[in-house]
Amino acid sequence: MRVGLFIPCYIDQCYPQVGLATLQVLRRCGVEPEYPREQTCCGQPMANSGCVEAAKPVARHFAETFAAYDYVVGPSGSCVSMIRNHYDDLLDDAAEQQRLAGKTFELCEFLVDVLKIDRIEGRFPHRVGLHQSCHGLRELGLARQSELGPTATPQVNKVRTLLQSLEGITLVDLARTDECCGFGGTFAVKEAAVSCLMGRDRIADHQQAGAEVMTAGDMSCLMHLEGLIKRDGAPLRVMHVAEILAGNQP
């Protein structure tokens, strides 16, 4: 298979170690992805801010950049969801949009659903809290949503499945397993007070559960939470799930 490695712009600019960890994980799983250097943003910041016309050429560029690949894989549930669920408003060709949506995957989703991997060799002897980001959970279906109730159809938690296979790891039990962190892109700017309160609620939940490390499949959520953690001096580290699966240590 020919796999295009999609590294979101904020990871490329602010957290390059997450992009490198994603590459390492894919290689360990037998995939040698290609990184098209001409890739840019997926267009989500513009679209979420209501600037749909500004997002259209960005989406067009993305579609053309990754057209030749069998799969597109990225370490971001929100960016992958943007491509898969919201490009119908940005691309004129519906068939092209459907092809792109059908081959674009979040990292853990790709490992579990496409490569059929449920175990990663490695060791991470730490207490870890899993923050399940809203886009990955509710738009990509990476786990079952708690609001659906106990009668909902059971669903594999794809991120947790891979994490719990690591030797020595302890995944702590949170009081609220899938509550929003409050980031929401420009929401954190427009409604900063509410955003920070939501973020501190999530941090408190992880601390009360005894987590040493907070992880997630979206570095944007972790960026927001890490800012609050550092400001408050909380004894908690954040790591993207790709970093943990790659064997990095806090």
TrEMBL record:
Source species, domain of life:
Bacteria
Q: Which Pfam families match?
A: CCG (PF02754)
Give a GO cellular-component term.
cytosol
All copies of the Cysteine-rich domain together span 3-84, 128-225
Q: Which InterPro entries match?
A: Cys_rich_dom
GO MF entries: oxidoreductase activity
Stretch forming the signal peptide: none
Q: What name does UniProt use for this protein?
A: Lactate utilization protein A
The organism is Pirellulimonas nuda
Lineage at the top is: Bacteria, Pseudomonadati, Planctomycetota, Planctomycetia, Pirellulales
Gene name tied to this protein: lutA_1
